[in-house]
Amino acid sequence: MFEKLRYLTAGESHGQALACVIDGIPSNLYLSAADIDKELSRRQKGYGRGGRMKIESDHAQILSGVRRGKTLGSPITLLIENKDWDNWCDVMSAELNDPKLKTQNSKLKAVTRPRPGHADLAGAIKYNTNDIRNILERSSARETAARVAAGATAKKFLSEFNIHVISYVVEIGGISGQQSAVSSQQNEKKLLSLFNKAEASPVRCPDKDIEKKMISKINNAIRKGDTLGGVFEVVVLGIPVGLGSYSQWDKKLDAKLAYALMSIQAIKGVEIGLGFEMSRRSGSDVMDEIYYRAQKRGSAEARKSSKLPNFRTSELYGFYRKTNNAGGIEGGMSNGMPIIIRAAMKPIPTLRTPLSSVDIISKKPFKAAYERSDVCAVPAASVIGEAVTAFAIADSFLSKFGGDSMEEVKRNYEGYLRQVRNF
């Protein structure tokens, strides 16, 4: 699915650390641990998060692929230590008999009771284990910290081309507002304003009135011992025309983005642009009509456009659209409009209110035990959504423009922009 960029993550929720190896980033990109830590910090915030966030303070160590603040073109290795490891080193030790550890037999007791809504039962059957801890440690959403680190690297790359990935929450527990980029047909300046408001919100909602209702809904879920899901929206700004392709199924940009977002734990649905709403309307209501604005030679607009690092059909001249119901993608390719994606997250399946299940050893019914968990993680999921979206966009960008160094990629990109401007 991914052609030029790839990453692998490793590590368990309560293991020593999470690791991420990124391959394909060109040389001479300025990158620091601070660039990555900024995104890791954003992932840890949000009203309704659980006790784990009070323990961890994620920091990325760059182990390879960067020298003196610039990428080398070789694989980048990132490490994020788990501070909670100190409390779990006996349980999660890699050694059968580690003399340095004081094993607590009660803690080492196998987990045999699968929790509904988790990977527990299917994973135990698949990997043929009677200890569900072998499953839940890796299937945990803690793994997304490593993905956010990979996404932070992709974001830094895209920023060199004035491409930015933003997000905000549009719904929690059925409480929703009207801040969608599709329905309101926002321009890029207004979308950035929405994002800035979301950054200051504990639920990442740009609407203060809706924010209060969402927080009230979360508080009610806390009192009931329940959890809440929701919907977040990811927007890509400054995207050029022509990323992706219609030529093969696995080169389509919308398919790649849906794949990336659906890979996030607890995401159960993805739509682009109007998405499912398109099926409820007639074609004349949803197609984005095409217009053309001629450029005047010597005009202030023309002088301005010659200095821009990106070509935005919706803001300057040439072909443009007044609506963006397609969400910036037509025929599997970006069309120059902002890319707009929404993802639906199910409620966290770990509940303080017990759910029915069956012990895998005794086969007897029981009420699932509660482990420390979030009540609502939608705000954090939107940050993770930005990360995987940025990585998918960066991969498509490099697939089109190529280059082993940032200088080469920029030359290729600038040549393409001249072609687009003269089309």
Give a verbal description of the structure.
Helix 6 (144-159) crosses helix 12. The protein has helices at residues 33-43, 52-55, 89-92, 120-126, 133-139, 144-159, 188-199, 208-224, 253-262, 283-286, 300-307, 378-401, 406-421, and strands at 6-10, 17-23, 60-64, 66-67, 70-71, 76-81, 164-172, 175-176, 230-237, 267-272, 290-293, 318-321, 329-330, 333-334, 339-345, 356-358, 365-367. Strand 4 and strand 5 (70-71) form a beta hairpin. The model is unreliable at 303-315 (pLDDT under 50). The strands form 6 sheets. It has a 5-stranded antiparallel β-sheet with strand order 8-7-9-15-10. Strands 1-2-6-3 form a 4-stranded antiparallel β-sheet. A two-stranded antiparallel sheet has the order 4-5. The protein has 13 helices and 17 strands. The chain has a single domain (6-288, 323-421), classed as Chorismate synthase, AroC fold (4-Layer Sandwich). With 423 residues, the protein is an alpha+beta fold.
Strand order of the largest sheet: 8-7-9-15-10
Structural class comes to alpha+beta
* Tally of distinct domains: 1
* Average of pLDDT: 89
Q: Approximately what portion of the residues adopt beta-strand conformation?
A: 15-25%
